Amino acid sequence: MDYYGFFLFTFVLVDHVAAILDRAPWHMANRHLVLRHWKPNMQFSKDDLSRIPVWVKLHLVLLEYWTNKGLSYIVSALGVPLHADI
Predict the structure, then answer these.
(1) Are 75 and 55 in contact, with CB atoms under 8 Å apart?
(2) 66 and 41 assigned to the same domain
(3) What is the pTM of this model?
(4) CA-CA 20 to 30 A from 45: which of 7, 20, 63, 68?
(5) Containing domain of residue 25, as a range?
């Protein structure tokens, strides 16, 4: 269902919802997809998105920076790094 740019998904099992939310970040058609667990009386507003996680692909990183500390330093220019997939 589309509510002015918002989509609602229905799942049969609660475990499926947790599995989907735990595998973030998601992308669809080269756009970031923000998923949230629905709650009663939830407000649908894009204004409350002050931070979203993004996946950053780094190319041509010098070998001496290819550590958790080095990559964290590079990516900190964008924001707070959450995870490194080395």
Answers:
(1) no
(2) no
(3) 0.49
(4) 20
(5) 2-53
